[in-house]
Design goal:
Layout lengths: L8 E7 L5 E7 L9 E2 L5 H4 L13 E2 L15 E2 L35 H5 L22 H38 L4 H22 L17 H7 L31 H4 L3 H15 L13 H10 L6
């Protein structure tokens, strides 16, 4: 949800079943029947591009803001997700809480000097350029920022995997209608088109390439406690929503979004592929080395947590 003081609109983005992003606006005026208006394409100028894997998706960026709040685009920007080094995150963002790592948050700079961004100004005085009192809350919790970066990447991967699987399936059906039973080469092409983005989604779910943290990281709004307490548990056991915040975001090396409505709405062939590959990895049968960050103890813990995903 995006809100700017004095702006006429409240902007909202959400992940619909299958992961694709949908965008809405809400006029900031009193009304007996407030209406959320679905965007008809203007948001997709930024939110459907290579930055979002070519599908309608979410986008978070780190910029070099000037003192008037506008970015210095000639100095470049960074599209951020959970693989982005913390030192490059949050340029142009207000961040609260405690994090013993340098980052670009809570800083502005003149045209010719950006040393402040490398210094990590979290916890430094910000009153000279930002007024929290103008906003509904004084908090911009660092833990919520970390979760947002993770969800940005995984939801976009879910959307991409679903889009490619549906397109490949429709192509196969159309070719069968036109030419009869599909050839072996066509079936192999369809299989690759489904499995390649599914494999990328699997890697994101298992946090391959996640940027390491140097904790302890602590929020200041209660977000972390609420996030963890909303977990769906079977009895009193552990949850995929448990946070680590010492060396990584989550306690377990698997995203809680594997149990999201967006993931559940993926085509069966994508889910079955991920289920099979997940079992291979957690049982030690995968020899690629790409999942070496998941140790034996963690694999056992995930097998217990994800038992319902076994083929």
């Amino acid at each position: 949800m995006g809100w700017v003081p004095g702006a006429p609109l409240l902007e909202i983005s959400t992940a619909v079943p299958g992961g694709t992003a949908a965008f809405y606006t809400l006029r900031q005026q009193r009304s007996a029947r407030p209406r959320l208006l679905r965007d008809r394409g203007s948001c997709l100028q930024c939110h459907e591009s290579r930055r979002t894997l070519g599908v309608p998706g979410h986008l978070t960026r780190s910029v070099y803001p000037a003192r008037d709040g506008l970015p210095h685009f000639r100095h470049g920007t960074v599209d951020t997700d959970h693989t982005t080094s913390v030192s490059e995150r949050w340029g142009g963002w207000y961040v609260t809480g405690s994090i013993p790592m340098p980052h670009r948050g809570n800083a502005v700079g003149p045209d010719d000097s950006f040393a402040e961004f490398a210094a990590g100004l979290l916890g430094q005085p910000y009153e000279r350029f930002f007024e929290p009192a103008r906003y509904p809350t004084p908090h911009s919790d660092v833990v919520a920022h970390l979760v947002l970066a993770h969800q940005t990447k995984v939801h976009n991967s879910i959307a991409r995997a679903g889009h490619e699987a549906r397109a490949a399936t429709a192509y196969r059906a159309e070719m069968a209608r036109l030419f009869g039973d599909p050839s072996a080469s066509l079936l192999a092409s369809v299989k690759r088109r489904i499995e390649r983005p599914a494999e990328l989604l699997l890697r994101d779910l298992l946090l391959v390439g996640e940027a390491r943290l140097q904790g302890p990281i602590r929020g200041d709004s209660g977000f972390a406690q609420e996030f963890q307490s909303s977990a769906s548990r079977d009895g009193s056991g552990p949850s995929l929503r448990e946070l680590d915040l010492e060396t990584r975001l989550l306690r377990h090396c698997c995203s809680y979004l594997i149990r999201s409505p967006a993931f559940a709405a993926l085509p069966e062939r994508v889910q079955s592929y991920i289920t099979r590959r997940m079992a291979e990895i957690l049982e030690g049968a995968d020899e690629s080395g790409d999942f070496a960050h998941i140790g034996a103890g963690e694999r056992a813990a995930l097998r217990a947590l994800l038992g319902s995903l076994r083929p």
